[in-house]
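Q: I'm writing up a methods section and want to include an example of the input and output format. Could you take the sequence below and give the corresponding predicted structure tokens, formatted cleanly so I can copy it straight into the document?
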Amino acid sequence: MYKTESTFESAFIGQISLFANKNKKHEKSPDKTGTIELELSEAMKLAEYLTAHPGEQNYAGKTVVKLAINAWDKRSEGGTEYVGGTVWAKKPEAGVNDLPVF
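A: Here is the clean output for your methods example:
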């Protein structure tokens, strides 16, 4: 299982990529667009995590599931600048019902 910079295991791991939106049609168009990429086995782990997670209250009082994102400014081999990183959640310890802490 993928290890983040800390000493815990992640419940799943995916890669994110955000590029400058070169096709902005108006001021409300997004500045960056991109993808989250999960290997199929990681997507299955994400599905398991989401269905087992009880959720938590966000600032607006809605029940949500939070996923952590780490991102870095990068440059592709072709010279294109983009934001790349990972999306993940801490794997709960066996027998512990606490929510993951980011």
